[in-house]
């Protein structure tokens, strides 16, 4: 990053925050949402294109397609896609495939066994072979029943991690996660950092 | 990765003046001081020499793959047990430190509290605690003060003298960091309760100093390497000066196996595996162990011989014992407006009204409270938590993510640990690391007073949350004891009596005259939860004395 970029970024950030603190008492996050949503939509579109291409070839090094399909259905309930992107857009399953292959092969059995048991439960309770074929409400009911299990904890952990992991780990990078928490990719900030320090000096605190 | 092209290459049979094991908070300072004083120095560092360009906001790599701290994934498993009656288990706890040039000064949060005069003679002033090894230091604050000031200026500390801070001979080189919202809230709470919050000293530059830039407030501080070179690690403040001296050779990727002694009982050579795993050795006139409070005692225990059957420098039996972690407690609060505690440095205000708790409470302890982000400011860590009893998955969980990340603050108490002979670093009898060395085994159970102190601090933090206007809150402390730490203190304690301590007041081994232990291991008491400033001051002081000894032929 050169000095020119840095100055511009700091200035724009400072102007942005100065504008906000005088414009409204409201949340920085809410006010900055339109910009983030736009950026996110662009990211999502790019991601969808990339997934479409990637899906055409066998893209998993460790997971079978069958296992990947069920893990995708589960992670999509853990962080669902609604008005904002979720686990699917974050490439959660591709992330799982990569990080399991990088020295976590022992957890593959946890996932495989967990999915097999979940499908069996699906069959018993709904007469359907695959969890991924259930409605979202049915899926949520089944996941609630197993949410204390090591299997669910593992999938939940990996799904949440995938929202913030860099692209080198197989997902789409932290774009989705940062959008959800109201963070940006900026590597530099200037005061005020939040609401309470914005007029700290002026208030004489 | 850094290229070290200008440094000398010493032959292994060439008896250099000093071999320094470890290039971290203490090792970096020793290397700079000894080499710029004209001595021929070899540093052996087991990790790589990274640079700012190697550091990224890589949460998975840092937090889950232990890219800096290493563990079993990198071939360095550890075991943990509560007491000596238990069998230590792998993966159930352990000690953390960064494996790279600069050591843990790369990833620390840089809270640089000086200790106060009281810390050095508290056992006399307050009275000792039965069943513990709580004793006075053999040195005073006044003796260490010039070296604290050296840390301020040469390492780079930002701050502002507080109302009860110990006297200082020179002001801070850099002004305090700009206050964060989390600490404005801490200050509000403090005022309401009649306490005082004042600017926290940090080893992070608030403005350019010594050719390095000021902080850009990126927020990836605690646990991460600084991308801007604004965090004052020894990698950026000391190692470049050591290498520029022309006297210092830095050998990275080198893991030390043992320190050998000669017939006269003096340390003569350091045996290590080089970056290709080939065994090498380096002859030296003197050896300085700066491998940290875990690895320094481990190395001494691994250096056992017929002459030293209980390990090197261990006639007292104290090597590895009196391990102190510091204790911690926190309250997390939710606020109506964005706090954004994930930006900038971890802490910008501190409350020191509870530095030494009233003995009438019935337990020993003390510490400080600062404002922070609940999960060190990192998004992945934040999202892993379902705070305030909220759902841990699904649409509502997702909706809460931004609230939990940006609308929360933590008030954190950092407090004392008592030195106990039963808390220790030792060699695991079963498990081996990738070099075939016995794995690091930790035995630790906090003293009941430490737990009571942590609980006290959690209660104060909860009161502060209410006083600051938190709309929801919860608190926690290690009720059942801690299972690991990154504060590795007390395992080669300093003292005047060779029967009860490992190094003397100059960090010299009581047993081996040309062997020095300079790192957290020499701390006699634990500090109030922020020990690195003192570790660095002790290193500058030890270097000053060692240079004098060497010049007078007294090593």
- Work out the number of β strands of chain A: 0
What is the end-to-end distance of chain B? 36 Å
The termini of chain A sit apart by 36 Å
Name the poorly predicted regions of chain B.
none
By DSSP (H or I, 4+ residues per run), the number of helices of chain B equals 12
Give the tally of structural domains of chain A.
Answer: 1
How many H/I helices of chain A? 9
Question: How much of the polypeptide of chain A forms β-strand, as a percent range?
Answer: under 5%
For the largest beta-sheet of chain B, the strand count, sense and barrel status come to:
7 strands, mixed
Q: Strand content of the residues of chain B, in percent? A: 15-25%
Q: What's the overall geometry of chain B?
A: globular
Number of beta-strand segments of chain B: 19
Helix fraction of chain A by DSSP (H/I, runs of at least 4) = 55-70%
Overall 3D shape of chain A: elongated
The most extensive interface between chains reads: A-B, 49 and 48 residues
Please, what is the average pLDDT of chain B?
97
Radius of gyration of chain B, CA atoms, in whole angstroms? 22 Å
Low-confidence stretches of chain A: 1-57
Describe this structure in words.
The complex is a heterodimer of chains A (205) and B (555). By secondary structure, chain A is an all-alpha fold. Chain A has one domain (3-202). In chain A, 63% of the residues lie in helices and 0% in strands. In chain B, strand 15 and strand 16 form a beta hairpin. Chain B is globular. In chain B, helix 1 (25-36) packs parallel to helix 12 (532-551) and helix 5 packs across helix 11 (448-468). The mean pLDDT of chain B is 97. Helix content of chain B is 25%, strand content 18%. In chain B, strands 1, 2, 7, 8, 9, 10 and 19 form a 7-stranded mixed sheet that branches. In chain B, strands 6-12-13-14-11-17 form a 6-stranded antiparallel sheet. A 4-stranded mixed sheet of chain B has the order 4-3-16-15, with helices on one face. Chains A and B meet through helix 8 and helix 9 of A and helix 2, helix 5, helix 9 and helix 10 of B.
